[in-house]
Amino acid sequence: MKMIENGIVTVRSKSELKEFIDLPFRLYGENRFPCWVPPLKLEMRERLDRRKNPFFEYSEGEYFLFRRNGRTLGRITAGVNRRYIEKFQTPTGFFGFFDCEDDLEAASALFGAAEEWLRERGMKEILGPFNFSTNEEGGVLLKGFDRTPMVMMPYNPEYVPPLLEGCGLAKKKELWAWYVQKDTVLLSDRLKSFVERVEGRGDITIRSIAMGRRFKDDLDKIRVVYNEAWKDNWGFVPFTDREIDALGKSLKPVLDPDLFYIAEERGEPVAFIAGVRDVNKVFYKIKGRLFPFGLFRLLFGISRVKEMRVAVMGVRPAYRRRGLDAVLYYKVISSAISKGIVASEMSWILDDNHGMNNILHNLRASRYKVYGLFGKSLIPEEETLGTPSP
Q1: pLDDT tens-digit profile of 105-144?
Q2: Where does the chain show beta strands of DSSP type E?
């Protein structure tokens, strides 16, 4: 491969893809940023493989690197999500996997390449980061740099938000992460009594997710609830069957059924909540490699993790305002405490989701991390200004 001394490289070869995957290890590893958690390289290769990732069944994307004097300084992806465009009727393109040295020239070149690629496909706006879709990791960390991220949550150095602003992007939305410790969470007798009344009525049953042959059936139920419960949320694009199957396959080895509940009415799913032990605590130790010993550390280490993330909850619209959301939070948090988990993160929650944020506030959770979504118009300034008067 001929080394390009200066400029943008469009990732094409296996060696360039390896460089794309390895870059964050060089930028953030070796204790340069101690709170960064190395991802599993094997998983990253599969996610970036357009033949394996179901996201690319309805989307297209490109990967870019920036080099100067033979040294790679940054990376970025650009993507067009056709399902997002079809649902929201807006020509918005996305960026993701943005990692870069604190170098405005490099960052500007990367965004320039991503923006040009999106313009060529008719996009009028760029928004992100999302890796790749709105159902995956999203946002730039704005607050909470002193703590490692939990499973499936991003991390970046403090210099990244100013880099984005230097490239002309502005914050469009905030995503909040809440944190609660077992010694401070408010699981009041009143809430416990309410949970008992809901379960005692008999019309709603709440059970753990099945982990055997019925696991696939439960995944299908979760997809139905999730897609209906979230359909009106900002930026939401429904999961496809293949996407939910792929997510289930990746999470099943680390799922604890006592932290994952499904609510049903006469066998029909109406709500669910998913808690996952913070597997990042193990990823931190295995440094991105499952072999030769990382797999054993993962399998034997996950049960010892004392923190978890409540990653998602959904209640079908017809069953809202019945307190099911509070009941599910009570169930998963009380179960976590009984299993020796000392703290939980609830994330991410949109800043304007007042109902959910109020529930977490009332549980005495604290808003300890804030993420931002950034974007900018791709319409040339002269087009927005119109034709000047003679």
Answers
A1: 999 999 999 999 999 999 999 999 999 998 899 999 999 9
A2: 6-10, 59-68, 71-81, 92-100, 125-128, 130-131, 137-138, 140-143, 170-181, 205-208, 260-265, 268-277, 307-315, 343-350, 366-377
